[in-house]
Amino acid sequence: MSDVPALEALIPASVRALQAAYYASEQIESALGTVFGVDSQLIEDETYFVAENDDRIVGCGGWSKRKTTYGSDAAKKGEDVLRDPRTEPAMIRAFFVHPTYARKGIGRRFLEMCETAIDCAGFRKIEIIATLAGEPLYTSCGYSVTERFDIPLRSGDTMPVVKMKK
Q: Domain extents for the chain?
């Protein structure tokens, strides 16, 4: 939990730079803090990873065994109950990389670590609610699109995303 302030600085920097080619600045700003933000349950469940360079967090990402599919603490309503690994998928969640370190394999490494941990936890299926910027990475790692939909934003606008599975 001591990393939360660093994550709260990393996430907006990552989103504003790496999502800019896919979403309007109004969508990005409206999504920050709710769609894009820290989900402390991932930290508490020890399913969240960070990448560091010179003691500075330059990336983060993880997976979840809970019902929440995306979003930060601010977007949650009620208890975040556990999924049944026999019948429900684990969720890949909250990947963010500092723009300086983008396209250097951090996201791919997080995905490998998550998939290994998910397998060890007994899940056989994985889902992701991917941003348009994340879709190419997940596709290259064997995930397939199952649905495209829009997430409502607090501004009244929407953000297109992609549900993917493996």
A: 4-165
Looking only at the bridges linking them, the beta strands covering 48-53 and 90-97 are unpaired
Spatial CA neighbour of 141 closest among 21, 22, 61, 57: 61
Task: Give the position of tokens 């992701």.
Answer: 128
DSSP letter string, 75-129: G--S--PBP-TTTS-EEEEEEEE-GGGTTSSHHHHHHHHHHHHHHHTT---EEEE
- Do residues 34 and 74 touch, judged by C-beta distance below 8 A? yes
What does the radius of gyration of the chain's CA atoms come to, in whole angstroms? 15
pTM above 0.85, yes or no: yes
The pLDDT tens digits for 20-54 are 999 999 999 999 999 999 999 999 999 999 999 99
Look up the CATH number of domain 4-165: 3.40.630.30
With contact defined as beta carbons under 8 Å apart, do 57 and 96 qualify? no
Max intra-chain CA distance, the chain: 41
Residues in contact with 24: Cβ distance below 8 Å, sequence separation at least 6, in sequence order: 157
